[in-house]
Amino acid sequence: MSNNSNARSSRRSNASGSTPKKTSPKRLFWICALLLILIVAGGGCGFISATLSNLPDVSNVRPSASSQIYDVHGNLITTVHSTENRLPVPLKDVPKDLQNAFVATEDSRFYSHHGIDPVGILRAVWVNIVHSGVSEGGSTITQQLARNAFLSQDRTFKRKISEALLALKIEQHYTKDEILEMYMNQIYFGQGAYGVQSASHVYFGKDASQLTLAQAALIAGLPQSPNYYSPFNDLEASKKRQAVVLGQMVKYGYITQEQADEARQADLGLVAKQEQTHEKSNASYFINYVIAQVSEKYGDDAIYKDGLKIYTTLDMDAQNAAVAAMQNLPNYYTDSNGLHQPQGAIVAMNPHNGYIMAMVGGRGDDAFNRATQAERQPGSAMKPFVYIAAIQSGKTPGSIVDDSPVTFGNWSPKNYENDFEGNMTYRYALQHSRNIPAVKIADEVGMSKIIKLAKEMGITTLTDQDNNLSTALGGLTHGVIPLEMVQAYGVLANGGVKVQPTAIIKIVDRNGQVVEENSIQEKRVVEEKDAAIITDMLESVINGGTGGNAAIGRPAAGKTGTTDDEKDAWFVGYTPDLVAAVWIGDDYGSETLGISGADTPAVMWGQFMANALANTPASDFSVPASAQSAVSEGYYNPVKAQPKKEAAKDEKADKKDDKDKSKDEAVKDDSGSKDDATEQKSNSSKSKKSSKKDR
Known about the structure:
Layout: H1 2-16, H2 25-54, E1 67-70, E2 76-80, E3 85-86, H3 96-106, H4 118-131, H5 141-150, H6 157-173, H7 176-186, E4 193-194, H8 196-204, H9 213-220, H10 226-229, H11 235-251, H12 257-265, H13 284-298, H14 300-305, E5 309-312, H15 316-325, E6 333-334, E7 340-341, E8 343-349, E9 356-360, H16 383-392, E10 400-403, E11 422-425, H17 426-431, H18 435-445, H19 447-457, H20 482-493, E12 497-499, E13 504-508, E14 514-517, E15 522-524, H21 528-542, E16 557-562, E17 568-574, E18 579-585, H22 600-612, E19 636-637, E20 642-643, H23 645-654, H24 659-668, H25 674-684
Parallel strand pairs: 1-5, 3-4
Antiparallel strand pairs: 1-2, 5-13, 6-7, 8-9, 8-18, 10-11, 12-15, 13-14, 16-17, 17-18, 19-20
Pfam families: Transgly, Transpeptidase
Organism: Veillonella dispar
GO biological process, one term: cell wall organization
């Protein structure tokens, strides 16, 4: 019994002290593998969870879009964009051939997958291995949209995961047609074109809706390698890629082989590379003026990225006429910036609605727009404000002013020719731009009244320091802006009603909603009677006065302007349909022009107006009954007792025997007759020579 107990005790002792059984290597491998899978899965889930939480919102896929600027007739002038030239187009305006070409080439299972296409990925891998080339991409159209709209082009694992997850989100949020539309408006086609509409314009000069099958196939083949397959860079490579697209369309039943063969042989109708963009050089100052206005009101992104349609007031016929007139500018020297001097500006406006019809702000670099930014001394172009104020106070064109020496404090104004003609009518004094009469009239009327009137008519640069008599001759503190002179003279052309100059008619956003629509802003600042009287007097400036070089064979009124040192020269004038200002001067105010407003500016104005109004019938200025009597006055100088020079020459030839009698009758009747005035206008308008130098 004792022996048996010892034996059992010995066995238990041996058992408890034995070595544990070892785990097999195979079992250990699977344990480690399971742990690794769990770790990777956990990490992957964490990565995907983190990626999902950081994905952008897909509810508003809104690519940047180019804005388009149109002229007054609805013709496209230019396209404005930042780095991406994109013109969004709705799917309904994209031909079915183009839609099918993209699906067949980029994602044949587009309508059956949910954003990611495993079958397509495997097929693309197989094609890459077997054929050493890619005829179908591995990324779906939805993935490409996700990548182009939201992600970078980095080839990283994180980006690929984000792309796939985004594709799934996009498919959940949008229909297939919406995805296809966004895709075709998003992707790059080379030559700076983003989206099918811009690509159609760049390569074929037409809207996407007008593309042929051959053109659609070429465009659909570009996204794989836009620069390589661009027909502007390698037409042969582009045609080969087009053939691949057509082959895919046949393969998936979108077209027949016969249609594909015809498309391969069809003429592509490519536009010349230099025709891709709209030439804006003739209107660059105006375009920059419009861009600045839109940017100031809505921000830079609005015009460079929001795809606005901006309908402007520019008339390209008038604009081209202004550009042509600028060729008359003399070339004295080239400054340190490479700009020819003197510079100049032309700006024109419809006086009835304020539409800016033409604008040239200089020549060369268009960074500084002299038509809207330059403040230059106007010289005698300020005198009409003096005479309007006088007419408002009860004076008439036949009122008398003494052209004789006068001194105001330490200042004695001089006439340009340093002479004196004694008593003369207001009409004659303005017609021949006599300085002393203008100053005397200003002194009588009061400069404060004249300045107030000029401001009401549109001149904003006048200050309290300008409340002195030299302002009557255009000696201002800051000068005037050409566009403001156009607005002010436009008051007279519009019967005394001021309209606000505008360059923009309306702005429409990419969805067709009107963002802004400008109406005519008008205000009466001069009585119709007074506007008609001063207009009639300014007609005399062109018909026999200092503005003879501006005669255009139809009713026109205007005023020359030259500064004392001949550093600024102007002509501002109007017809019943158009008002325009021409300014010439050295940018630095350092060079004497050696010309007056009666010379080159008047010639330029006349050339511009004649061309701009070539298709507009001539019409007379309206004269209300209340002004009929006044407009017949002042056609004879009571001192010299003769009609103004141009008419006098004609009368001398026809009426030698009546010369003395005419002079006597003229002294008796200061006003002359309306018949004489009409005859004088007719005769003098035949000549384009000024009878007097302007001052």
